């Protein structure tokens, strides 16, 4: 683990600037989406914020091509959904309590127990903020995450079953993550017959 003193000042300043919607040089950031296909059926969507769309597209296309992928239409593999994760607390609500409250709000789609404890609520994108605030206030739950994301449609998910595919995907995902313009990466992959260690190599790079 790096100490604070080992982090270059330029990276810290860049991160602060991006949080304010601008680049390290002060230029306004613009959102863009890159859709990526890894033949035959693995789809990715990258959410990007950049001050130069032409440059970012050129750089990221090179990463995709190097990994054996293609830039093409993949959005139909996914649905835009709101996702909120709430931290558990002692004496907190049950799953049925949260579900009953959620269905009272227009736009709530599903409630699940989160693998790390607490609850995960899926919503329509436009209703995410209102539902997140309502659930948090009703049960005094801390919000861990609240974001609009690209969720892979169940019938389009692809199993990762070989070490060769893990290697190709790892090259692609890690290469894209090297660019600070890439704010989020979504993929339609799920663990097939590969080991947990191999799956961890991929899962750490994707947002779902």
UniProtKB/TrEMBL annotation:
CC terms in the record's Gene Ontology section: mitochondrion
Gene3D superfamilies hit by this protein: 3.30.70.980
InterPro entries: TACO1_YebC-like_2nd/3rd_dom, Transcrip_reg_TACO1-like, Transcrip_reg_TACO1-like_dom3, YebC-like
Domain of life the protein comes from: Eukaryota
Domain TACO1/YebC-like second and third residues, every copy: 30-189
PANTHER family, A to Z: TRANSLATIONAL ACTIVATOR OF CYTOCHROME C OXIDASE 1
Name of the protein: TACO1/YebC-like second and third domain-containing protein
Source species of the chain: Trichoderma arundinaceum
Record lineage: Eukaryota, Fungi, Dikarya, Ascomycota, Pezizomycotina
């Amino acid at each position: 683990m790096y100490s604070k003193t080992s982090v270059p000042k330029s990276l810290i300043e860049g991160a602060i600037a991006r949080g304010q919607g601008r680049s390290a040089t002060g230029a306004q950031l613009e959102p863009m989406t890159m859709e990526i296909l890894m033949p035959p059926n693995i789809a990715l969507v990258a959410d990007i914020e950049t001050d130069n769309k032409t440059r970012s597209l050129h750089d990221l296309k090179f990463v995709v091509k190097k990994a054996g992928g293609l830039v093409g239409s993949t959005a139909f593999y996914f649905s835009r959904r709101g996702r909120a994760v709430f931290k558990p607390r002692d004496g907190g609500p049950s799953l049925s309590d949260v579900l009953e409250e959620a269905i009272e709000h227009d736009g709530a789609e599903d409630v699940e127990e989160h693998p790390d404890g607490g609850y995960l609520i899926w919503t329509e994108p436009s209703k995410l903020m209102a539902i997140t605030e309502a659930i948090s206030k009703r049960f005094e739950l801390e919000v861990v995450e609240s974001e609009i994301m690209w969720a892979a449609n169940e019938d389009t998910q692809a199993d990762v079953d070989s070490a060769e595919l893990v290697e190709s995907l790892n090259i692609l995902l890690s290469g894209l993550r090297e660019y600070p313009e890439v704010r989020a990466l979504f993929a339609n992959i799920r663990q097939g017959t590969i080991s947990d260690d191999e799956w961890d190599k991929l899962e750490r790079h994707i947002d779902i």
